[in-house]
Amino acid sequence: MPLHPFRYIHLLSVLFLFTVHINIYADEPDSAYIFAYGENGLRFAWSIDKENWHPIGNGHPFVKSDFGRWGSQKRMYDPVLYRAGNGLWHCLWTLNDDVGVIAHTTSGNLTYWKPQSYPYLFEGQGNCRMIEIGYDPDKDGYFISWVNTKGQDKELFGTFTKDFKHFEPARKIPEAARINQRDVMILNGESQTGTTHQIAWTEIDHLIKTWQIAEYRNGLHNELMRDDPVRFAGLKPVEVTVTVDPSKSKPISNMLIGIFFEDINYAADGGLYAELIRNRDFEFSGADHREWNARSAWTLNGEHIGFHIETSGPVHENNKHYAVLDIRKPGTGLINEGFDGIPLKKGDKYDFSVFIRGLEGRGQSLLVRLTGKNGEVYGVSTIKNISQSWKKHFAVITANETVNDARLEIIPQAEGKIALDMVSLFPQKTFRGRKNGLRADLAQTLADMHPRFVRFPGGCVAHGDGMDNIYRWKNTIGPLESRKPDRNLWGYHQTMGLGYYEYFLFCEDIGAEPLPVLAAGVPCQNSGTGGHGQQCGIPLDEMQDYIQEIFDLIEWANGDPKKNKWAKMRADAGHPEPFGLKYIGIGNEDLISDVFEERFVMICRAIKEKYPEMMIVGTAGPFYEGSDYTEGWRVATETGIQMIDEHYYVPPGWFIHNQDYYDRYDRSKPRVYLGEYAAHVPGRHNNIETALTEALHLANIERNGDIVALTSYAPLLAKEKHTQWSPDLIYFNNTEVKPTVGYHVQKLYGQNPGDEYLTSLVKVSDGNSGVCKRIACSVVRDSKTGDIIIKLLNLLPVEAKAMLNIDDLNVENTAVKTVLTGKPDDRRAEPVSAQVTFSGEMELSAYSFTVLRMKVKND
User: Fold this and answer.
1) Do 352 and 395 meet the contact criterion of CB atoms below 8 Å apart?
2) Which residues pair with 514 in a beta bridge?
3) CB-based contacts of 301: which residues, under 8 Å, 6+ apart?
4) Which end is more exposed in the chain, N or C (fewer Cβ atoms within 10 Å of the end residue's Cβ)?
5) Chain mean pLDDT for the chain
6) What span, in angstroms and rounded, lies between the C-alpha atoms of 457 and 263?
7) Nearest 5°: phi and psi at 292?
8) Burial 150-182 (b: 16+ CB within 10 A, else e)
9) pLDDT per residue over 621-668, tens digit each?
10) Between vectors from CA 129 to CA 124 and to CA 131, what angle results, nearest 5°?
């Protein structure tokens, strides 16, 4: 597979830029000076005389720091550039003022930089500012010095390394040991500190061209449909001829459309998971959200009652906190308002459960009711026979009204103290009627997409924020009270009520393959915990235990209950038959560092040896280019895994101008799982523009369905007023599900898949390349039904008259025609379907996606 970071630019465009540059600047110097500087990005300026400086790209960043949490924590201070004797460039910089850690990366050409590493040079003692580096010929290695600005005195320290992986202990050094390699230059009227080098002009020229290409590409990618009236001024309706050649066909993946579930935007608790009680386990804490504690979401409805939290003698050690009520006068109680209120539907039944322990008093009982804020009673039940040891009690409450904002009241009926934990309220009408199940309307909306697989539990949630937050599957199975809750990477609480067992059941219920993704022995590279980023990992002497956890998951999913204790747990939970797990993902958007690679390779080799039938999915970072992408592919190829997970969130124009993206992939390398992607525009709206460009991309993916095996849009779900990321595919509140235009595209592809691609030739009457790129067609055959499915895209502001030459397909002259169309900023468009008689000609509306489903004639 070609891995050059700029392979996506059309060759003629690149040649044009290079030719213009050569023609204008034919008389260039042999060498010049380069000045490397910058904050929050390594930037370059060049000069012939070291006096007149020209910033490249007006300060275009060629390296950005990837350490710490997203956004403002990814800082770069005082970058220093050094060229080793072998020609390799080393760049080092300070990350922050708090810890003694630096950043290091290397490059052979100043434009493509290897994955960054973050060695600790001065742990627990100070920081590393104004780094300098030099070569020590006596020791054949590199001497690094810095200034510690922590404390009252600015002290100088230094260390030595041969490989930038192993460092001698930091020691104080005299001022004379400093190299003093930093210069101060005036750029655009501002003083900048950096390092100066004399290099060949061809190297500077390469930097300039790299920036020019980036600018040219960004200009294409940021094209928006709202500008089409100007871009295509005077364009008349075009004529399109599509000729399908069934003799030129190839098998493609029949699993292209899936869903990627991550607990972000309150997608699980308060969302897909049907539990109606918030903080049911009294385990909220400041680690989840700095304003929360174990009492959060609970209030009292009177003055004659005490409410506090205890941890001695809990229901289960994994849920240490529970509530203690001290009732001094019956009639007062505890209130929970759920997730933005508790929605009720008249006549529906709701299962209430709670663990109770009587601490003092006799004949205690509870009145449990659903009420309104003004005292309205919407349903009531009672619990009696409370014992002095923990016991789970059950009740059923029938709603007598339909309301959106009820609340739960638990009212003790006698004086004394009682303990409560795991307070739960579930609608009986869950998806497929499953206990501890899923919200019916949300789950059905997902099922309607006909996804062929479900990826879970993330995303970044899978590898977590720091080592103690890695998502461990064993914490999510078994009785609810034994599951171990955890803080969510996105800033809230995970009960783990929606755990691996529920995920697998949902996959089974909708006929989708499960695709669990596990951490590769490292946390998220965006971790802020402990300041280590992703440079921490499970200690190597503990990796075999972690690998055994993965083996246990495979046995839990597929094993024989008579032979394996984990498989027996699955059977005891109600599923004696194996789930038939085929796929397992290792890693997610990881920084392809040495720490990652060592652990990833250990895991993959162990799985391949013990479970050779398992399909392993690796990771290629968060972008469609760059060092993580390149190194992720290298590691995947060298390890011999079968599939690699690509992610990219890009402007709509990227999909228009990269339609050959997967045509160039090496078919001998691992197949692709496009695990996260979406079109993003300013304002972050999911509209016709983003949806149609995503549909265009999927049409090109169908053409490349021999190398691309799986795709899933991300993120999937978002609860209104509780979103951390936008746009998302499906929005919802407590009573409504609001699919986006992008959802309808995914649904149309999911409901109209094929496993054979039929080559088609598309000719457009207007030969302008910009016009031609906005017309596309994909033709597939569904071998199960024999149906032919034709997908047509018109991303132009004018209609297109299409002539389809499909005589060789031997199809009937009737078809189901579905059209999704609207103005570019339309966020409410929905597809319209109709049975039509097809003569070979049809109109493609401006900004439209059309699907024709046709039956083959019965000769």
Assistant:
1) yes
2) 454
3) 332, 333, 334, 335, 409, 411
4) C
5) 93
6) 7
7) -100, 160
8) beeeeebbbbbbeebeebeebeebeeeebeeeb
9) 999 999 999 999 999 999 999 999 999 999 999 999 999 999 999 999
10) 110
Residue in this structure with the two tokens 């016709």, named with its chain if needed: 688
Contact 35, 79 (CB under 8 A): no
Q: Which residues contact 759 (CB under 8 A, 6 or more apart)?
A: 244, 245, 248, 249, 779
Distance between CA atoms of 511 and 168, rounded to whole angstroms? 57
Distance separating alpha carbons of residues 533 and 544, to the nearest angstrom:
23
- Name the 3-class secondary structure at 36: strand
Question: CB-based contacts of 729: which residues, under 8 Å, 6+ apart?
Answer: 686, 713, 714, 715, 716, 717, 739, 740, 742, 743, 746
**pLDDT > 70 in the chain, percent:** 95
Bin 775: left if φ > 0, else alpha if -120 < ψ < 50, else beta.
beta
217 vs 629: CA distance, rounded Å: 18
Any residues with CB less than 8 A from the CB of 563 and at least 6 apart, and which? Answer: none
The 3-state secondary structure of 609-640 reads HHCCCCEEEEECCCCCCCHHHHHHHHHHHHHC
574 burial level (CB within 10 Å; 0-12, 13-18, 19+): exposed
Instruction: State the SS3 of 649-668.
Output: EECHHHHHHCCCCCCCCCCC
How far from each other are the two terminal CA atoms of the chain, in whole angstroms? 44
Half-sphere exposure of 530 (CA within 13 A, CB side): 16
The CA distance from 527 to 463, in Å, is 10
Q: 611 burial class (0-12, 13-18, 19+ CB within 10 angstroms)?
A: middle
278 secondary structure, DSSP code: T
Strand partners, 250: 757
Q: How many residues does the chain have?
A: 859
| Calpha distance 206→22 (Å, rounded) | 12
pLDDT > 70? residue 14: no
Yes or no: say if 229 and 221 are a contact pair by the CB < 8 Å rule.
no
Distances (CA, A) of 431 to 442, 498, 502, 822: 9, 13, 11, 33
Burial class (CB in 10 A: 0-12, 13-18, 19+), 129: middle
Q: In what order do the strands lie in the sheet with 615-619?
A: 259-260, 453-456, 513-518, 583-586, 615-619, 643-650, 671-679, 708-711
- Give dist(CA 366, CA 414) in Å, integer: 8
Confidence label for 361 from pLDDT (cuts 50, 70 and 90): low
CB count in 10 Å sphere of residue 388: 12
Phi-psi label, residue 183: left if phi above 0, alpha if psi -120 to 50, beta otherwise: beta
Q: In what order do the strands lie in the sheet with 141-148?
A: 129-136, 141-148, 155-161, 171-172
Instruction: DSSP for 773-829, please give it.
Output: TTEEEEEEE-TTT--EEEEEEE-SSS-EEEEEE-GGG-EEEEEEEEEEE--TT-SS-
Q: Are 127 and 95 in contact (CB under 8 A)?
A: no
Cα 349 from chain centroid?
A: 36
Cα–Cα dist 525/103, whole Å: 14
| pLDDT mean over 207-217 | 94
Residue 363 contacts residue 391 (beta carbons within 8 Å) = no
For residues 786-815, one letter each, b for 16 or more C-beta atoms within 10 angstroms of the residue's C-beta and e for the rest, the string is ebbbbbbbbbbbbebebebebeebebeeeb
**pLDDT recorded at residue 72:** 67
Q: Look up tokens 């006799």; give the residue.
A: 362
Structure tokens at 259: 């869903």
Task: Give catalytic residue positions.
Answer: 589
Catalogue the E-assigned strands of 399-531.
Answer: 403-412, 416-427, 453-456, 486-487, 493-494, 513-518
Q: Find the helix or strand (DSSP H, E) in which 601 lies.
A: helix 594-610
Q: Is the pLDDT of residue 4 over 60?
A: no
